[in-house]
Amino acid sequence: MTLWLLAAPLAAADPMPGLVRSRDALRRLDCERLSAWDAADRYPGRVPRPEGREVDPDRTYVVCADRLFAPGFRDPGAEAALWGMSDTAASAAAAARATGLARIWHVEVFHASSPVAAKLGFAVKAALVAEGLAVSDRAPRLGPDDLDVLLRLEPLRAYPAACARWAATGGLSGEDALLGVVQLDRRATALQVGVCADGGWTWLR
Amino acid sequence: MPRRLSCCVRIGLASIAAAGGCVVHTYQPLAGLHRPVVVDPTAPDNLSDLDLTVACVPGGKLGPSEAGVLCRQVGRLFENQGARVVTTLGGPPDEAPAGDPRPIALRLELRSRQIHEASPALGWAAMIASFSLVPALTEFTFAQDVVVRSASGALLATETLEGRITHWFGFGAWASNQLLDWTVRPEAHEVVGGGADRVLSQDLYRQLSQVVFDAKLQARVLAAERGPAR
Lengths: 205, 230
Known about the structure:
The structure holds 2 protein chains of 2 kinds.
Chain A: H1 2-13, H2 23-27, E1 29-35, H3 36-42, E2 60-66, H4 76-83, H5 85-98, E3 104-110, H6 114-130, E4 134-135, H7 144-150, H8 155-169, E5 176-182, E6 192-197, E7 200-203
Parallel strand pairs in A: 3-4, 3-5
Antiparallel strand pairs in A: 1-2, 5-6, 6-7
Chain B: H1 7-19, E1 23-29, E2 50-57, H2 64-79, E3 84-88, E4 104-118, H3 121-129, E5 136-150, E6 155-169, H4 171-183, H5 195-226
Parallel strand pairs in B: 2-3, 2-4
Antiparallel strand pairs in B: 1-6, 4-5, 5-6
């Protein structure tokens, strides 16, 4: 009994489901296995920095952080979009920069959830600024007739058509470019990125 | 005449022998396996426009027979979602799918590797000394590398799914968890038995379904960008 009581605290430190932790509790953690060096770099003061020749080169740490929201608190689509928001914004901005267009960039996010679209839009604009690109808060508009037609089109045809209409109606001039971050399907977690410039739409990824 | 074993030694040997059958398996999702998933792996129309080649490449801890089993199970997963599937152990498939080619053709490559393993000797000593009341522990961390390519070989998606498996050996761990399973834990949260394998399979299949679905959309975008073939 004494040995088991001594072992129990060690078991409690492990996030695995068991005597003191349920499977639901485990799902509220984000865990990853890191090398000793990476763990020490990311968690200084909490993970000792390996030093000396006696250090086991294969030593690793499983580090866990509490999730901001419990699983199921947010809609799965919103959760998925916000989960990868930083990466999505950074890659979209990098793709925009790679076009080489010296324009004023506008951003439109097409997502089933309006709050998610707003958050993503802000993140993409911030990432564009970080890439050294000029960014505008103005959102190019389309008339109700145009929207009525575009909403009836299949998504892969709708965005090129919208781009042509923006150019034709003056919503986007020759000094502007629009970066579109698009959720093509409600079941998708990866977002596609396209650019509208000079009336032509190009899918970047 | 051999000496008769003392009572304590007999109990100890019996406990150690029993510990071999008293094992509690637990599973923890790490990088990739706990990402949010939206697509429903049980929906029959997710991939109805897809020809999919599933290649399970043997290597490391994944032998050819295990790779074959994995391919059959993953192939069935995607067939249930409407895809037309052929499987292979790494090379080109032995036969093409029957019928007219579907609009999108993808190749899913799966490779497994072990990135960490531990079995502290102190734990085993404690288990023996305590007649298996204190559990011994072995754990390993695996990585499932997932790559999805288009028919032309273009890389559409790549993901690494990591998980950690722990085996607790000993009557103490088994009995205490079994008691909690019988009295407190709901059936879906039971620890003893096949719960860990079931949850791992669910996580793996959900993530694979999402990766392939996203890759299918990416393939459609690339095809739209290329335009109709001249």
